[in-house]
Amino acid sequence: MKSCSKLITILVFFSNLIVYSQDTHYWSQQFGTESALMSGAVIGGANDNTMLFYNPGALGFLDNTSISVNANAYRIENISIANALGEKASFNSKQLGSVPLLAGGMIDTKNEDWKIAYGFMAPVNFDFKAIARRDGNFDIIANDESPGLEELFGESSITNKLSEILVAFGVAHRFNDNWSFGVSNLITARSHTFNRNYSAYVFMNDANSTLVGGNLSQNIDYYNVRYAAKLGLSYQKGNWKTGLTITTPSISFMGIGTVASNIAARNLKLIDDERISGVATDRQAELKTTYKSPFSISGGVNYNKDKSKIGIAFQYYASIDVYDIMDVAPNTFVRPASLAPELTSDYFMRAQAAAKDVFNIAVGYEYMLKNDLSLYLSGRSDLTYFDKRLNESNGIKATISDWNLYHFASGITLKKQKSQLSLGLLYSTGVTNNYEQKGSLNNPAEGNLLQGSRTITKASYNSLGFLLGYTFYFKKFELQND
């Protein structure tokens, strides 16, 4: 029974090795060309089919039978978590890549009061890879067993890749010159792969150079497809455009995932005076998955005056209670099974998600330098929805950041009769000095070799990107002349 209680302590220590994630934001990506340069402050209305995402009601006011929009962002991202494993042993992840912001168009209905649009977007595209290592001589084990300093070597690595592809299909009806209503059907495919490995070992200063320590490996790999509907209302009159949207909570209708964990402790003294070794491992595949996005409501106003246009938008996202992404079966976890049959996989391998409520604001400004050339400047908040209730549960927590982001955009759009070309610079930043880091070996001791110590440290995110977008218009009168 004593050995079982010690093994429970080992496993709980290991299962709490966590870092938190950048994949906890709703407004990291914006879509299209003009809409991205306005930081999404276009809920009142914009002249392209990005309204499919921002406000389907405003689709009814588009005066083109077909619009094709393509936009991409090319960016460099840097995430830094100071002292992740110990002093001068930080996590640093630098990524270079491209993000498809929108590809879509409209379908000619032959009726100017009805509009149909479609689009493909990437609302989430996050890739984090980092490794930290610490070694040196420390006073870890009591001198009666190991006199002097012990040699320690520890290493922690994380790979976290998360992406979402959104397919949208929307319909809008314009009731009169001022009012239009629309609905967008949003189908989101989410793919998430998370891998974490941690190890910490010391050599005792005894006749056998006894090895003490352990290692942890955690893996999550799943996909999920969910559906939500966005209802939008748009009112436009004179220089004013206003909009209001409601997005339903998502419905998860398919998905498969795999989860695995392996924990091993060697000659570790956690309780009393007895050194013990233990192993716990399981892998479960073909598990049904669930992923949720919340109810949200957004609104905005856009005002045009002479050569200037200004837009203001907000969006509120409701909270989501803690839930299991996968249903892990209570299989045998400890090996051999007779050692602790009451410790099952569902306690240590559960993968959970949750979200706190979030309120974001965007402001965008456009100035017409010439009839065919416009300058843009905009910014938006992007508050994290990370719910700290997840810290209190056991299992695998596959997130990295819990800090707020702020995004800024500037660029130009060159407009021609049938097309427009947009170029822009995108900058994002976020920082916290209160990042809760578990797994640090700043003060290594035998009691914390399996989890390290809990520290408060600094974490930051910076991203610099380049926007390239192209929009092509097919005018009604041109189609009729053909």
Strand order of the largest sheet: 1-2-3-4-5-6-7-10-11-15-16-17-18-19
User: Major beta sheet, specifics?
Assistant: 14 strands, antiparallel, barrel
Helix content: under 10%
Indicate the CATH architecture.
Beta Barrel
**Strand content range:** over 45%
What's the SSE blueprint?
Elements: H1 2-15, H2 34-37, H3 51-54, E1 66-86, E2 89-107, E3 114-138, E4 150-174, E5 179-203, E6 211-237, E7 240-247, E8 251-268, E9 276-288, E10 296-305, E11 308-317, E12 320-324, E13 334-335, H4 345-348, E14 352-355, E15 358-370, E16 373-382, E17 405-415, E18 419-440, E19 453-474, H5 476-481
Antiparallel strand pairs: 1-2, 1-19, 2-3, 3-4, 4-5, 5-6, 6-7, 6-8, 7-10, 8-9, 9-13, 10-11, 11-15, 12-14, 15-16, 16-17, 17-18, 18-19
GO cellular component, one term: cell outer membrane
Membrane topology: Multi-pass membrane protein
Signal peptide: 1-21
3D structure, described in words:
This protein has 482 residues and is mainly beta. Helices cover 7% and strands 60% of the residues. The protein has a single domain, classed as Porin (Beta Barrel). A 14-stranded antiparallel beta barrel has the order 1-2-3-4-5-6-7-10-11-15-16-17-18-19. The protein has a two-stranded antiparallel sheet with strand order 12-14. The protein is elongated. The termini are far apart.
